Amino acid sequence: MIAYPGRLKSLFAALFLTMSASLCIPALAVTSKPDPALDKSPATATQLPQRQPPAVVFAGRIAGDATSTRLFFDFDRKIDFSSFFMEKPDRLVIDGPPMLFRFAEPELIKPRGLVSFLRYGAITAQKSRIVVSLARPVKLNRFEVVEIEEGKIFRLVVDLAPTGPAAFRQMIAEQRARFGASGEVASKGDRVQVSNKQPGRFTIVVDPGHGGIDGGAKGISGTREKDLTLAAGRKIAEKIAAAGPFDVKMTRNDDVFLSLGERVAFAQRNQADLVISVHADTLRQKWVRGATVYTLSKRASDELASQLAVSENMSDLIAGLDNPKEEDVVQDILADLTARETSVFSRSFSRILVGRLGQKVNLIKNPQRSAAFVVLKAPEIPSVLVELGYLSNRKDERLMNEAEWQDGVADQVARAVSDFFKPRME
Fold first, then answer.
1. Where are the domains of the chain?
2. 3-state SS assignment for residue 95
3. In terms of DSSP bridges, do strands 291-296 and 363-371 run parallel, antiparallel, or are they unpaired?
């Protein structure tokens, strides 16, 4: 057994965090008036089952080389795991119940040997996931939970060994025949919402990018995109809800993962009149800074837009899902006309939003851009993707973390929404 300096102290600290941590919850609606569906009486509330706190993963390690690699994760109680492999890129996906990842020595889980990258976090309200990116095709020699300290410490041990590409593909084919596609693993039933549109009101969907296992970009000072977009998204939702006859719904209101397809479907289920997806990426060009507004197009407006679209469209792969299927949503002349009209409205809102944002924040050169972002692909809903700034730029990262800056951006977004819908309110 590997000794950890201060292991028990770290475990007790992690357990204390568990007491104050809340579980991931489904996406919630932010409206300008109370939602009766969310107003539960005390009698109803007492009937709800009590959820068990998430397990705490307090230690882990990756050891070995390209001929044999071992991973293990230590946690505070016995829990069950399942696993499956994926290809293009090659990955091992490990699913378990809700977990809090509080590694005492994170340097010990740095990738090595057959592991090229490691991600972990929530995948749904009831499930956490570890995604092991592989340096080459592998097979599982061991996948077992063992008891390290009676009733207190348990360990998941994973042993990987290299295998050939043909054997790896065959293993995945057999796995798919037994269990189905990997995309079915992430349940989305707990996020289904039925639209409750009212005449004279407009439904705006605010989509904070990334979440859960998909942390998104990481800033120079350590800011995580998923945290920043959620904080800014909440403020934007509140400001819009107070600005007019707008019912604002957020795709996520907590640190949970949603696939790109779910985000689009969420807007469609709620018969959205406008989608605003909020992001803050990184770029290789660290001197680039300022806000940008993107709309959908099959061909990117420039290399920068193309680079960002490729990055954002990999969200599902990061979370251990299949590649989003490239489906042509335009199947007939009527649908083609709808998509064309939607594109006009998206560009119109983009112009209004750029004009408003320019009054408060720095804009990138040529701030109206376009690319094939999957999250914007609802053919009947005007949609934009807003890059608040770039976490690869130190000044942008500092500004985007300031509450006053976020308030200013939220004000301008709300004003742009009011400007956009004003002709339809008269």
1. 21-32+54-184, 196-425
2. strand
3. parallel
User: Is 50 exceeded by the pLDDT of residue 304?
Assistant: yes
| Cα–Cα separations (whole angstroms), residue 233 to 225, 244, 255, 409 | 12, 18, 12, 10
- Residue 65 vs residue 197, higher pLDDT: 65
| Residue 382 and residue 340 in contact, taking contact as beta carbons nearer than 8 Å | no
Provide the 3-class DSSP secondary structure of residue 170: helix
**How far is it, in rounded angstroms, from Cα 11 to Cα 58?**
6
Element (H or E) spanning 189, and its range? none
For residue 152, give both structure tokens.
């207190």
Would you state the structure tokens that stand for residue 172, as one six-digit string?
């995945």
Instruction: Name residues whose C-beta falls within 8 Å of residue 179's C-beta, 6 or more positions apart in sequence.
Output: 84
**What is the distance between the alpha carbons of residues 267 and 250, in angstroms, rounded to a whole number?**
9
Contact in structure between 247 and 31 (CB atoms under 8 Å): yes
Of 41 and 10, the structure prediction assigns the larger pLDDT to 10
| Distance of alpha carbon 272 from alpha carbon 380, whole angstroms | 9
Q: How far apart are CA 345 and CA 337, in angstroms?
A: 13
| CA–CA–CA angle 397, 403, 404 (5° rounding) | 100
Q: What is the pLDDT of residues 122-174, one digit of tens each?
A: 887 788 899 999 999 999 999 999 999 888 899 999 999 999 999 998 998 88
User: pLDDT digits over 165-215, tens only?
Assistant: 999 989 988 887 766 544 333 334 344 444 566 778 999 999 999 998 899
**What is the distance between the alpha carbons of residues 291 and 390, in angstroms, rounded to a whole number?**
8
- One-letter amino acid of 303: E
Mean pLDDT of the chain, nearest integer: 81
Closest CA to 254 of 60, 47, 23, 1: 23
**Prior bond to 89 cis, omega within 30?**
yes
Q: For residue 362, give both structure tokens.
A: 């720095």
Look up the CATH number of domain 196-425.
3.40.630.40
**pTM for the whole structure:** 0.70
- At residue 100, does pLDDT exceed 70? yes
Kindly report the backbone phi and psi dihedral angles of residue 29, in degrees, each rounded to the nearest multiple of 5, phi listed first: -95, 140
Cβ neighbours of residue 392 closer than 8 Å, sequence gap 6 or more: 217, 219, 220, 281, 282, 283, 284, 285, 286, 288
Please name the fold of domain 21-32+54-184: Immunoglobulin-like (2.60.40)
